[in-house]
């Protein structure tokens, strides 16, 4: 389909992008890789009056050692996350999960910030950042409060909704270093390029973080599983709590019951693999 008519503005800096957001407010949408926004526009599910192109802002494309965490620019491509030597050494879960996103064409264009800001519950990287206990950095104009940090656990608010205001730009993702901690990323899909029917990200770094893909209206932290592991439960017993209190979606790929079953199986596998890696 053909999207509705829109105006196009290209920002040459993060500050200019924020100024344009201030100018157009709710009428504007940011365009980075375009893999999430453009399909919605073609289906007329999103009809922004103005597209602000930030895809060329190299100042927001980086992977840096920041002491106790790794800082990743929001416009860093999936491929750069996948191949980062620093991430492979310090946060291998994130580098591996990035290698599972779509196909090479998608990974060379899509950005980590775009994936997270879009907040799709079926997307891999938001769940990974949740499991790692990451933090998101948002920047607005000085009049709108300037820069703020948002814990990943507070970032996802509803289906395709996040904590960002219409005049804020996601600038950075911060994830704790996990070094040689055990980790695992599991997902089940029909074909390699499909969205996960269910996915699981797990890391065991002193305490266990587990997050689920496509098990609700947002990426979900599996707190019942984490509590069970903290209480000494086995991987099998902890995984039995994978779907506690959740209302998985029903679609052409799976029923809610099937997703609950998959979550239990994949969480058990993830916990076992994370435990094995961490020995």
Describe the structure.
By secondary structure, the protein is an alpha+beta fold. It folds into 3 domains: 7-53, Uridine Diphospho-n-acetylenolpyruvylglucosamine Reductase, domain 2 (2-Layer Sandwich), CATH 3.30.43; 58-176, Uridine Diphospho-n-acetylenolpyruvylglucosamine Reductase, domain 3, CATH 3.30.465.10; 182-277, Enolase-like, domain 1. The protein has helices spanning 14-24, 37-42, 78-83, 85-90, 92-99, 104-109, 112-118, 124-132, 223-230, 235-239, 256-277; strands at 7-10, 28-31, 50-53, 63-65, 69-73, 135-139, 147-151, 156-158, 161-162, 169-176, 182-188, 198-205, 207-213, 220-221. The strands form 4 sheets. Strands 4-5-10-6-7 form a 5-stranded antiparallel β-sheet. Strand 2, helix 2 (37-42) and strand 3 form a beta-alpha-beta unit. It starts with 6 loop residues before the first strand and ends with a helix. The model has no long low-confidence stretch (mean pLDDT 93).
